[in-house]
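Lab manual, section 2.4: Encoding a predicted structure.

Procedure: take the sequence of the chain (265 residues), apply the prediction step described in section 2.3, and record the output as structure tokens. A sample record is shown.
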Amino acid sequence: MEAPDERTETVIIYPVGPLEIVGLVGEPGCVVSPGRAFERRWGREHVSLAAWNVLGEALLVRELSLVRPVPAETPPGDFQRWTLVRLRVFLSEDRRRAVIDELLDPCVPLGPREESLVARLQAPIVVSHEPFGTLTFERERGDFEGVADWRGQPIELNFGATSEADLEALLTTGRALWSDQDGWQTRVETALCEQLLALANDWVQDDGEPAMSADAFLRRISLTSIQIEPDDALTFHYDDGDVFAGHYIVAWGTLAGIEHCEMWG
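Recorded output:
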């Protein structure tokens, strides 16, 4: 069987099958994405199995990404997180992706082995890395979160990684940022004043307040969190100090510098 890979638009060969498998639906469960323009009546259902096995073979505790075409607007109701399902599939040669041929049983009872595995997979992942301290993997958000010291003040810190292996690369970006906190604070504040001060003064003057200087604007707002994503992407979130009636202020950039700031939310 051949099927297009949505991420690369190349054709992936699924030569193994059809095989009957039993799998444990993991995070994020099931997601339905729209098809391309010429397929607008159809979408793709994506399912992630956290563990699975071909009938008669040993259990593999590793991800298997499943896909099947479904009519557009189909709700993701057949696959619930942390349930056991039985399917017939075509496997890719590396046995890491599969096309669903048929869902045979959407609710296979969990045995003691599966219940123990679910408990282990749902357990929080807590790691510690300097200079950030304790980071906890938040399964609902799909990232590592913590509280770290930034120029003497605690702020929320988010790393956009879904595994400890992915986190390693982002820690390098984070450490580069943390090694020059004063310099980065100046870069962000300069960009905020250049891009948002005029708008901020429009808002406060509409409320009958006098126009603010750059220093007055910066005294009102406060950094609340930093988000670090792949490719050195950085996001700085600020409380607006009621300048924008409670909207957030966000500055985006990379380690090369701040690229864009806006009132948000």
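Check your result against the sample. The CA atoms of residues 51 and 61 lie 4 Å apart.
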